[in-house]
Specification:
Layout (H helix, E strand, L loop, with lengths): L2 H10 L8 H14 L5 H10 L7 H7 L4 H12 L10
Helix pairs in contact: 1-2, 2-3
């Protein structure tokens, strides 16, 4: 995984509740969308959540029963201390 991708993984997993965290996660989501790693529907959830710093987009995806592949990738990234996410773990 290159440094830019690793950086965007750290951004998309920014904890909720931090000022501007929703916008930070959305910016990173746009990166993954442009790389072909995220669907338009999942990106839209990040867009909607971008102004809601306390809202975790993964929780929204779970409630709406969509984006299960993306949720699994983020959970794998988090579980391996940020060393996953590119399918190599």
């Amino acid at each position: 995984m290159d440094d830019e991708t690793r950086h965007h993984w750290s951004l998309i997993t920014t904890p909720t509740g931090i000022e501007w965290s929703g916008r930070t996660r959305y910016a990173a989501a746009m990166y993954f969308f442009q790389q072909g790693e995220m669907s338009a529907e999942v990106l839209e959830v990040y867009r909607i959540s971008s102004r809601l710093d306390a809202e975790d987009p993964l929780d929204v995806l779970r409630r709406w029963k969509m984006g299960s592949e993306w949720i699994a990738r983020v959970e794998a990234w988090r579980a391996h201390d940020g060393n996953a996410g590119d399918g190599s773990a």
